Amino acid sequence: xSNSRRxxxxxxxxxxxxxxxxxxxxxxxxxxxETATGNDLRCxxxxxxxxxxELELHHIDYSGVTETPTGWKVDEKHSDLVxxxxxxxxxxxxxxxxxxxxxxxxxxxxxxxFALRVLRRKLTTPITEQP
Length: 131
Ligand SMILES: [Zn+2]
Ligand SMILES: [Zn+2]
Fold this sequence. Notes:
This protein has 5 helices and 4 strands. Helix content is 47%, strand content 12%. Helix 3 packs across helix 5. The chain has helices at residues 8-17, 21-36, 86-98, 100-104, 108-124, and strands at 56-59, 65-68, 71-74, 81-84. It is of the alpha+beta class and 131 residues long. Mean pLDDT is 86; it is low at 1-9. Residues 43, 45-46, 48, 84-85, 88 line the site of one zinc ion.
């Protein structure tokens, strides 16, 4: 599933899903699962701990989400989603949209992982440690 190969239709599809009740339920379950691991909730970009209400979830992969005549079939794996501060989620999407290399990358998973690495480096490297 490519970012560039599914333009307007893909966006509508995602926008519809992200307003659905099933998504809100899936989102709540993701945070419950994450908390159950015993780890603190964190932003995947800046690595700072955060509360559920301070975080949004980014889809690394939408392949678990399918629209059916009776509604959304929701089967995202836990690893298909990552938690981010809203501002850092926004930065991630800007990187994904703007960067030609990321846009050309085959899967959203690969592009997201790459963009997250770029963001992490930007947000977590102390100025004193920069060469
Ligand atoms: Zn953050
Ligand atoms: Zn996102």
